[in-house]
TrEMBL record:
Pfam families: ABC_tran. Keywords: ATP-binding, Nucleotide-binding, Transport. PROSITE patterns: ABC_TRANSPORTER_1, ABC_TRANSPORTER_2. PANTHER family: ALIPHATIC SULFONATES IMPORT ATP-BINDING PROTEIN SSUB, TAURINE IMPORT ATP-BINDING PROTEIN-RELATED. It comes from Ciceribacter selenitireducens ATCC BAA-1503. Belongs to the ABC transporter superfamily. Residues 8-241 form the ABC transporter domain. It comes from the Bacteria. InterPro entries: AAA+_ATPase, ABC_transporter-like_ATP-bd, ABC_transporter-like_CS, ABC_transporter_ATP-bind, P-loop_NTPase. One of its GO terms (molecular function) is ATP binding. The keyword Nucleotide-binding applies. This is ABC transporter domain-containing protein. The keyword Magnesium does not apply.
């Protein structure tokens, strides 16, 4: 059996922002392998570089030193190759476009035929359980539905890699639980590779095959936890000793990386 393909491979990756107040070490010596089909969560306090790391993968920021490849390419080539879909903290849908027109936008830009656009919009609406809502405007949907529509938009051009920056952070816990289990099913069905930023320990443990614990000043990886939980995870798994043991290790990692002097 061949080893799974490395979707993101970072070696000794550093990114320093030069600011008026001096350099900010947003990422320091990050080593990480994300394999095809992994669900990787990035967790850590504010400012530890979670968003910056996703932005480097997406070629929205340039690293200062070290190396990173995305699907075996430079981030720039991966972006040009449409290697990933990006889901932001807020749904960021255009209010003057219907849901289906929002989802079709990247497809329009990429020059897909009208027919293909329609097919893909229908498929992705179904994937996120929004069939029948395509003609609605974003403001006619709940926050959770809007976020599902933005996931559909990121899925529409069928990139293998999904980058998700705290997509459910603004939602209440019940909606969040529901979307977490929906996202897991979607991941299972589509075999995507997902990089997911969160502040929530239960969310990270519930979703991930691998949890990357980070800490700030400088932004760095302090622990990488390979989950031992089965791929199929009912919400009740969160009460099992195995789940709680992983959550405990994440919490300890977060504590160890936290300096109370700052
Ligand atoms: N464009 C920029 N210019 C200067 N500093 C920046 C820039 N973007 C991010 N930073 C700094 O880099 C560090 C890492 O920021 P980043 O947004 O990646 O953290 P984060 O872990 O995603 O935080 P949060 O959980 O609050 O979103 C922070 O100290 C932040 O202030």
């Amino acid at each position: 059996m061949t080893a799974p393909f490395s979707v993101v491979s970072a070696k000794d990756l550093c990114l320093t922002f030069q600011t008026g107040d001096g350099p900010v070490h947003a990422l320091s010596n990050v080593d990480l392998e994300v394999k095809k089909g992994d669900f990787v969560s990035f967790i850590g306090p504010s400012g530890c570089g979670k968003t910056t790391f996703l932005r480097v993968i997406a070629d929205l920021e340039k690293h200062t030193s070290g190396t990173i490849t995305v699907n075996g390419m430079t981030p720039e080539n991966a972006r040009k190759d449409r290697s990933y879909g990006y889901v932001f903290q807020a749904a960021a849908l255009y209010p003057w476009r219907t849901i289906e027109k929002n989802i079709a936008l990247p497809l329009e830009i990429m020059g897909f035929s009208k027919e293909e656009q329609k097919k893909r919009v229908e498929q992705t609406l179904e994937l996120v359980n929004l069939t029948g809502f395509g003609k609605k405007f974003p403001w006619q949907l709940s926050g959770g539905m809007q976020q599902r529509a933005s996931i559909a938009r990121a899925l529409a051009f069928d990139a293998d890699l999904l980058l998700m920056d705290e997509p459910f952070g603004a939602l209440d816990e019940i909606v969040r639980d529901h979307l977490n289990s929906e996202l897991l099913k979607l991941w299972d069905r589509t075999d995507k590779t997902i990089c997911f930023v969160t502040h929530s320990i239960p969310e990270a443990v519930y979703l991930s095959t691998k949890i990357v614990v980070m800490s700030p000043r400088p932004g760095r990886v302090t622990d990488i936890i390979e989950s031992t939980l089965p791929r199929e995870r009912p919400l009740e798994i969160r009460e099992t000793p195995e789940f709680l043991a992983i959550a405990h290790r994440v919490r300890e990692g977060l504590k160890a990386g936290h300096s109370y002097e700052e």
